[in-house]
């Protein structure tokens, strides 16, 4: 049977994970507060709302990478290969393990910095494009090793897809990017946060599941079993197919649509498993994700390339919710580092003599070597030009890998309209846009909820105004209304 992936760890880590970008379109500013416009729902209006739109963010173009159909771990390996010993790549999409996570981003930055250090003279000047976790991790190692380093960031802040909001609208810092962290033998970010005084709370991954009518139901494993069977079937095929195709061709897509006593059908449980598992951990739908390298597939179990496998059997992952500011990690890394913000790199030209960077305003900067940490989505958008063009293996890897989308909505209420103390909520049936919710009340004492929307649902809602986005979120919360 498939092992259910830990909900939200890809988003949060995943969500996951994150770096910078280099393009010319300004970053969209989400509206921080709600105007109080009435909405067609019984759920009360929140005091404050904050949403993300990572697909529409010109400096991200998505949330984190995933294995698309035809993509393999070798594509990630190809993307992280240095070019002419001048251009080095980092970022979660290049991570050796835990791609799509903050841990993976940090590991990639340290790996790229070590590659530079192995061949560069200490008198050389090194540029790092991107002040996210990967970029600042690389810069920190190189500065501590004595190199002259400049970090160039397109945004007006550091952090990339790690975006901590601390203001009077919220009783504690909220995370628009990754919110969770996992403790395991290979992850010590929680310990670093503790040292820096940033609070995190142990979080259960046991969800309270409700139907759209509000009935609490136990999870029927039929959906997870259908996915598991499809993954085993796909592993024996001669070529990779999408998980959706594997479910259909393996005969696991014919689950009954007849509802039982709870109003939920076996087919609903398959949709539930995909919505709360696959879509959240990859930011993509089953028609996009590789059946060979989907979360839980035999290949990911063997290679540890899944975005959510940073634990071992001896040290099981223990998720923690960060409520003290993920940004503290970045601020600590950036201490005494030369970071230039609001500067977009549009061209990386390299030859045997060094690297020339062209900035969006027309200026140029000459360095000896460069570490590029912009997100995969921006590389796919071709917002950054390379001269000469990157080798075919790099371009093939950029084209093959997928960029998933996972967005969040944070809602703060005057008082709780729900009666459950469960910190994690999920919804089965009816294809809700927000199938996963985190209830912060039992953890913090504050009536704050965080909802997650992923894959094609996130793509569609990314076009919504704040008011319409709020309507969709509040509608999804109706199953949790307390009985009058």
From TrEMBL:
Q: Which UniProt keywords are present, listed alphabetically?
A: Signal
UniProt xrefs under Gene3D superfamilies: 3.90.660.10, FAD/NAD(P)-binding domain
Q: In Gene Ontology terms, what is one molecular function of this protein?
A: oxidoreductase activity
**Pfam families according to UniProt:** Amino_oxidase
Q: Which residues form the signal peptide?
A: 1-21
Q: Which residues form the Amine oxidase domain?
A: 42-116, 133-186, 321-481
Q: Which residues form a coiled coil?
A: none
Q: Where are the transmembrane segments?
A: none
Lineage top rank: taxon:
Bacteria
Identify this protein by name. Answer: FAD-binding protein
Q: Which organism is it from?
A: Cryobacterium frigoriphilum
